[in-house]
Each structure stands twice: as structure tokens, then as C-alpha cells.
User: Fold these one by one.
Assistant:
Number 1:
Amino acid sequence: MGKGISKCITLTSFNLDLGYNSIDENGAKYLGEGISKCVILTSFNLDLRYSSIGENGAKYLGEGISKCFTLSSFNLDLRFGSIGENGAKYLGEGISKCVTLASFNLDLGYNSIGENGAKYLGEGISKCVTFTSFNLDLSGNSIGVNGKRILK
């Protein structure tokens, strides 16, 4: 899948629903590598809910997303992806490079990112200052009072 995506270098809109599949960290690696070649993407929509990509999978996706400098619309569903604190950090780092984002939707429900993961994610998102639409779901992540305060 990722190798096929990497050949679509003129792709501007990416929409892929792989939710409820057994996409693991290797699958996420290939997707991240493929996405990284699509440097003129403006719209990104990826559903990997219930795929247990883990923190390394989140790292690969974050690295791929970080190459998409022209994104204006971002939608990523990683509910129950087991990304943890470091996975949130990697995603935050990738998102921080997408400074032209207008529409942002990220669902990280039930990923055990904790307070530090919320901090890292917040730091990355804070680099994106052109939002007109923003939705972030961190339900079931035990981010605590400090995590909520950091995200405000």
C-alpha cells in the first residue's frame, strides 16, 4: 500500500480508511514512507482506528506527515492505536511542520498518552496558527489536570 502511494507524487487529496484492520507498526511504516513522498498534499484523511500501530507506528506516520508542508486539511483517527506517550510526541512533532493547516481533526481516544503525551502533542499543535476548524479527541487517555491545562 505505502509503495503504491509513494508513486503518486502529484496527489493533492488523500483519503484512506483502514479502520478495524490489523495494521501494525510495519504497516504504519509503509504508509508513513508513502505519505512522505506526497509533498503537495492539501487534504489528508487517514482512518487507522483499532489498528495497534504502537509508538513506532506513530513515529513513522509523524515522519511522513512532517513532509507534507502544504496541508490545509488534516484528519487522522488512531483510536485504540496503542501509541502511548512517545507516539503522541512523534505525532506532535510531525504536525508541527504543517503550519498551513486550517481544518484539523485528530482522534487519539484510548491510547494511554498520559500527561506528557498531551504536553508533547500540545507543543506540536501550537505551531499551527491558521486553524479555522479544530477538533481533538483525547478521551480515555488519563491526561489529568495538568494535561488539560497544557492543552488550553
Number 2:
Amino acid sequence: MMQIPKIPGMVMMDLIHISHEAGYNDYENGGVWVDVKVVETPFKGAVLPLSYKDLKYDAGGTYTVKDQKLYTYNSFEEGEKVVYEGANYTIQQDKDYSRFGGGLQIYIMKRGGAA
């Protein structure tokens, strides 16, 4: 049986995924509009600096040394937000390695942007 590699626990850290619940009319309270709600969901991942190869112009755009690479077993879509060390990052590019690592996902995250 083939051994599936896993990210070592010592490099995994607590991160926060930021998502939004759509606003709606609350008809049980007279149809009052309820604003969009920000939802913060903790997850585990490893954040590493981009390699020199990643820093070159890639399919996701031009990256800087402030941008990071995220290794996780969670799935995200381009444009979703992640908080790492108090800074906001936007998922820019998915490098799907799930077939090699038991669901491993690798993302390029661009620093900046509001949550």
C-alpha cells in the first residue's frame, strides 16, 4: 500500500478563512434588511514564502515577497480571503496536488485587500 505524504504537524498553524453570508430580508421581524455577515472559520495550514520561480510572472499575476504559499487540506476558490499573522491575503491561484497528497491543496496568496 502506498504511503500518502502528510504535512508535518509542527509546521501547521491556525489560520482564519473569511467568508460572507449574503444579506437578506428578515420577514419574521417585519421584513427588516439584515446586512451581509462576515464569517470567520478557523482551519489548519502551513504558510511558506514563495520560491523564486513563484515570484516570476505566473498565471495568477505578478507576485511580491509579501505574498505567500498556503499548503492545506481545505479547499478554497480564487478570491476568497485568509488571515495569516493579522494580515489579509487573497487566494490567487490553486495548484491542485490532491492526487499526490491525500487531498493536499497548494494556493498562492496575495497580501492585501479587505476581508
Number 3:
Amino acid sequence: MDEECLCFLDQRKQAKTQWVQDPNQSNVDNLNFVKHESIRHFRNKKKEFLKDEIDEFETNSKIKNIRELCRGISDFMKGYQPRTNIVKDEKDDCLQTPTIFSLGGENISLSCSMYGVSDVRQREIHTAEPLVLEPSPFEAEIAIEKLKRHKSAGFDQIPSKWIKVEG
């Protein structure tokens, strides 16, 4: 989206408001013309964008930059996928990620109350396996050293390279 695209959107909006205010044949023809021109422009912009993406893939392939090539291809194949981390509070209002972290312990008790847990601290854990002791600081350091870089983040959404840098 550049200034020219925004200009086409404004023209289309103005043509539509003119048609709504006065639905005569000249305004209908003007609206159709502006719609077709804007669609043609957006189609050409999309073709240019895709051509640039393919050119970037070709250059990464020629210089044997396999990591960027694979990352670009996988992003291209997946497309845009927005993340939705939404939780409802006691009033059934939707909370998004930043507000969840600001609630702190209140949110944990809310989510536990949804599953029938009355008090988070008094809940007993019944498992078939024996409980594993927490690792020592030395074991944690060894595990962090063994982490590989450029791997996808786990359920906590923290990449391994951040953990290796921060320790």
C-alpha cells in the first residue's frame, strides 16, 4: 500500500458517497469506472509484489542462502496468519494478551475457576508418575548450552536464541 493505492481508495469512497447521495446514471457510471480502475491498479501492485518476492527467492537460491530461501518460501506459502490470544474475564468481556499480563494472579484464578478449581494453592496434584525434582543451576546451564539456534519457539513463545543470549 503506497500513496497511489490510498488515492484510489479515496476516489472510490468519494464516488460511492456521490452515488448514495444522488443515484443517477452518471454517478453509477463514475462509480463503476473508479471501481474498475482501482481493481486494475491493486491487481498490478499485487503482481509487482509477487514478482519481487520471486526475484528475492531466486537471488537467495543463487547465492546459496538456504536458510533465508526456506524461511521466505514457508512464509509465502503460509500467508498472513494473525495470532489470537483472547481470554474472557468474569464479565464475559474479551481480554487480549497485554491486559492478561497486567492482571497477574487474578487471571490465573479466573481460568482455574472455569475448570472447577476453587483455590489454586489448595489444589492437590494426583499423578501416576513420581514428581521430578527441579534441576540444579548447573544442569540448567548445561541444558541452555545445548539449545540449538534458529529453532521455533515453544509453547512460551520464547525463541531459543534469546534464552542462550540471556542465560
